[in-house]
Amino acid sequence: MEAQLESLRSDAIAAILACSGESELEQLRVRFLGRGGELTALSDRMREVSKEDKPRIGKLLNETRSAVTTTLDERKAALVAVQEAGAFSGIDVTLPGTAFPVGALHPITQLMDRATAIFRRMGFALADGPDIESEWHCFDALNTPADHPARNEQDTFYMPDGRLLRTHTSSIQIRTLERVSPPVRIIAPGAAYRRDEVDATHLAQFNQMEGLYVDEGVTLGDLRGTLEFFFRELFGKDAKFRFRPHFFPFTEPSFEVDIQSAALGTDRWLEIAGCGMVDPAVFDAVNERRGGRVLDPEIHTGFAFGFGLDRLAMIMAGVPDIRLFTDSDQRFLSQF
Ligand code: PHE
Asked: CB of 138 closer than 6 A to ligand 1?
């Protein structure tokens, strides 16, 4: 029995080490350790072993089983390792991998986010309104009479039902004042549409940012301070401003804001925004809608401003043609 165990052990180990595949290895496991296997057959014969030999033979039997089991496990691990190494053969794992380019926000969106963050620091909330707007919200309530050129069919996109694509984000001033009572302090970035001939400085769809602040005792000084703070955050502390008298139907007085800054690579004054003190006629229009005198021109004053985000982005990055923003040319966009 002892000799049989010894020879089973050396046969099994030799066969296991010689085997070259996992299925062959499994067959060997069954052959030696399986229920009808050779080692099982030998252990069945323990009954025939004399009492004094039993401990020794029993120990040998256990040792043989564990030696065979260990050899099986080790061989299996070795075979798996060889297989895995094979999977990498021909592949140089030290080569750089394939880079998947990560996208980025559009430059106009980036500017919109930056501008929004600056105004939020000054307590402005984000407001919104529909792109397809009623004539009333876009024009009438903004004190823009029926014969104003902005309302001309040649200048504006009208829907068959008389609504239109808003020509400016100022309609959001009205949308906000219809719902909210002073104090009101909002900014509203969004698309605006005009029937412009498309060229290097005009698109039929562009982006604006509107601002409105209505409360008791809001002054022109507040307007000026707010815009100067905002544009200095964008352009740098050295930026100089000029508030040039202008006309908008919905503000009185009205101004255009010009900026001069070394960062802009020119010593020319650049026009960047329209603004003014909210015309009491706007309050009247909203009051009439709301029924009552929520906005009292004797108590409330306000300022409003609006500027083109596309134009601002062009000035800031020295972009010569506004159409680059809508061309989806990666060579242009990936610079931002
Ligand atoms: N809505 C004006 C425009 O599109 C800009 C503006 C906004 C002017 C608010 C004054 C106040 O040109």
From this structure: no
List phi, psi (to 5°) of 76.
-65, -45
Say if strands 251-260 and 270-278 run parallel, antiparallel, or are unpaired.
antiparallel
Least Cα distance to 272 among 237, 231, 333 occurs for 231
Choose one of 142, 156, 165, 170 to mutate for the ligand 1 pocket test, by most ligand atoms within 8 angstroms of C-beta: 170
Q: Give whole-number Cα distances, 40 to 5, 122, 131, in Å.
A: 11, 85, 84
Distance 261 CA to ligand 1 centre (A): 23
Q: Is the pLDDT of residue 284 over 90?
A: yes
The pLDDT value recorded for residue 227 is: 97
The number of the ligand 1 atom at minimal distance from the alpha carbon of 306 is: 7
Verify whether ligand 1 is closer than 6 Å to residue 304 (CB atom).
yes
Same domain, 63 and 112: no
Give the range of the structural domain holding residue 27, as residue numbers without chain letter. 2-87
| Residue of higher predicted confidence among 30 and 303 | 303
pTM over 0.85, yes/no: no
Task: Indicate if the pLDDT at residue 94 is higher than 90.
Answer: no
* Total count of domains within the chain: 2
Please indicate, yes or no, whether residues 199 and 151 belong to a single structural domain of this protein.
yes
Same domain, 124 and 241: yes
In a domain, 73, yes or no: yes
The tokens 């209505």 sit on which residue?
Answer: 214
Q: Which atom of ligand 1 is nearest to the CA of 274?
A: 8
Residues 57 and 121 in one domain: no
Mean per-residue pLDDT over the chain, rounded:
92
Is 166 close to ligand 1, i.e. is its CB under 6 Å away?
Answer: no
Which pLDDT score is estimated for 223? 98
Any residues with CB less than 8 A from the CB of 313 and at least 6 apart, and which? Answer: 107, 108, 111, 319, 325
